[in-house]
Amino acid sequence: MTRRFTTAMIFSLALATGAAGSTRVSFMRTIPPAHQLPGERVTVIYAIGDNEVVRTFVDVFVERTNRDRALQIEDATEHGNHMVGDHPDRQIVRRIRREHPADVYLGINHFTCESTEHAGDVSSYNVDGVRIKRHQVWVDMLCRARVDVLDAMLARLMSFEVQGEGTSQRVSEVTTDDRQIAARQAARFAAISAAELVTPRQLRESIELDESAPAFDDSRPLLAAERYSDVRALWEAALRTNGSSAALHFDLAAVCEALGDTAAARVHYLAAQRLAPSNPLYRSELAMFRRRSEQEKR
After folding, report:
1. What confidence score (pLDDT) does residue 67 get?
2. Contact 92/80 with Cβ under 8 angstroms?
């Protein structure tokens, strides 16, 4: 059977192929935590709150934080009363240091949960297929906590606040169990928030390359194998005779960033922007590079 393609169809196919087949550089980058803890060994020595789901908060916080191997966190909250003030007794310091040696200590303080009840009417069908209205109630829970960061001598270095929200199912009457379910959910989300504030995050970045650059075709097998060091060497050699190529500078910038050489990446991103100031891809990626660089400095 003979297929006939109109000019519009051929143009649409070309656009789809180009969009789907664009070559990219992909890499992982690390964003430092909002609160960088000194050292690698961490021990939680107290957890004080007005709700028993503080235990949920500690369990989830320790489990989530330990997922990142940059920190080794121990839960010592059930091993005795380790509550310390702003001027801890030397004997308490020595005992905690002996029983739980760590680079930094954490305390969960002022853990509290507040509930808000809601009600509303919903329509549903009974077993006879008759539409009826049902009155339902539910409770929203907000849990807050202060995380104290203590140095090796149990002197407070800093504190930060976290919170999480939870909600119960919609029922005809809210029970104590419903409230506890909402509270545990809120404590869990507060703990996840706390863990994210003290652990680095891994993000995958993907940068579309400019395939019009000199020597690009020669680099395709290397790019497919993610041999970025070899790609960089190939393009740097091509740059000696194509120094005015904005596309080559841009592609080099992406590869340098993937290899972790942000200083070289900055030079080449700026060169590409200077040589082709109206190119939207270059302008956009330069802005994204600057944003990524600021995130990594925090």
Report:
1. 87
2. no
Q: At how many degrees (to 10) do helices 216-224 and 228-239 cross?
A: 170
Tell me the Cα Rg of the chain.
28
Q: For residue 126, give the 3-state DSSP assignment.
A: coil
pLDDT along the chain (298 residues), means of 10: 37 34 88 90 92 94 88 82 64 88 94 94 74 87 96 92 95 91 97 94 92 96 96 97 97 96 97 97 96 79
Q: Check whether residue 96 and residue 189 sit in a common domain.
A: yes
Domain boundary among 201, 218, 252: 201
Structure tokens at 242: 């194509």
CA 153 to chain centre: 31
Q: Any bridge partners for residue 85, and if so which?
A: none
Same structural domain for residues 279 and 164?
no
Residue partners of 216: CB distance under 8 A and separation at least 6: 23, 209, 210, 247, 251
Strand duo 156-167 + 131-150: pairing: antiparallel
φ, ψ for residue 49, nearest 5 deg: -160, 175
What is the domain range of residue 215? 209-297
* 175 & 260 share domain: no
